[in-house]
Request: fold
Amino acid sequence: MDHEIIEEILSCSSLPSLPVVALRVVELTSNVDVKLPELATTIQNDQGLASKVLRTVNSSFYGLPNRCASINKALVLLGLGPVKSLALSFSLIGSIGDQDDGFDYQNYWRRGLYTAVAAKVVADHLKLAVADEAFLAGLLQDIGVIAMHRALGFRYAEATEAAGGDHRQLVKSELGAFEVQHPEIGAMLAQRWKFPDELVIPVRYHERPTAAPQGHHEIVRLIGLGNLAHDAMTDADPVPALRKLYQRADQWFGIKSDSMQALFKKIAEGAKDMSSLLRIDTGSHPDAESIVREAEKQLMGMATAGNGSAQTLDNLLIDSKQFDPLTGAVGRAGFDLALKKAFELSATSKEPVALVQVALDGLQKAAGQIGTSAGDETVNACIVLLRKHFASLGGVICKLGGDLFAVVLYGANGRAAQHSADEFRMSFDKAMLTWPLGGGTVKSSVGIASHEPGTAAIHAGLQQFVVASVNALKAARASGPSAAPGVEQRAAA
Reply:
């Protein structure tokens, strides 16, 4: 870390600074025994701030049954958190302003506001106590970018240009140029303002949520989800960010994709409302309904693309002759080669490999009763849905014969595989209720094995890996159709 650069940034005279009333709010609310009337008086001493807070708490975003005419009443009805968060948000916005200095303030505020709203919406959905802190932390997360821009001028502009407009690359560019990153600078500013740890920590770790210290995972991961929601609403291709949003929501908070999809739409509406209430320019507002619809179309397009989509893992070098002619899925020989190549790559790249085995219980019996064509249609349906739910992970979809299928995943761990497997099972079993075989007589069972690369010989490790996935599938089938996927995790050798 370059301490001279840090000193240059933090001593810059044009850095954002909170007004006296905001600093007093921080001071008062740091005391667990804060007296609400004293806090109300502090905010109301700044009439402009008080009117902004009241306008916002009386909006549909907060949904109060009756209008608040005073800060004191807002504190009684809403509690300390929302009022404190709004007072500091308005103060932060005012301290940064919107200068004509070549900085993209619209993009800055869009990222901050979308993240803030998303974090609060998810926290409210889960009834978490940190919802208001999460909102403020989202708005505050990139304050270090403002500080570095104002202190370093054209040098920082060169670093941001090197990132190519990709915020995810910005921290790498900053580190290469200055040996310090904006999350660290932002956290230092937050500490200077005497913000509590529940705000400082999310600012410091918002780019790497999984590295947050114990006790702060919840709020930092809310900010992480907020950033993914922002990306899904602003990226030219929203599908990767949207899929990652669904996966992280499930992995971190147990929110399934259908619920997260509804929250995504609520986030878009909330961001539009709050942009107006906070009076910040975030540009045109996305249509979440259209984004979700377009994402579904793209995923289904990938799912029905036949041979092309089965080769999303180009580095596995699947020969086109090894595809099943009925479904376009990779056949048995291609499966063996894909798995072997995945293990070889894993040994050198240290990336994980996962194997998902799928059985359609009751397929052969039902097809014998209704007819072969109906059975073939059900097999095709299975392949389409496997592609839909594993395409974003680059899965190689394989038809092993009869009622058995598999997905080879290079670079995906067991948790990611299980998330997609859960969604596949729900989609397939729902589809079977109206499929030609009808009545839900065909059900899916799923077994999963995952492999972390180690020093074991490829062929020995591969054989054990396949056996583990077969055993997991057997366990799932023994538990009954559509039971949770059987999973056998393999630790690194």
Q: What stands out?
A: DSSP finds 23 helices and five strands in the chain. Strands lie at 353-361, 396-401, 404-410, 443-451, 486-490.
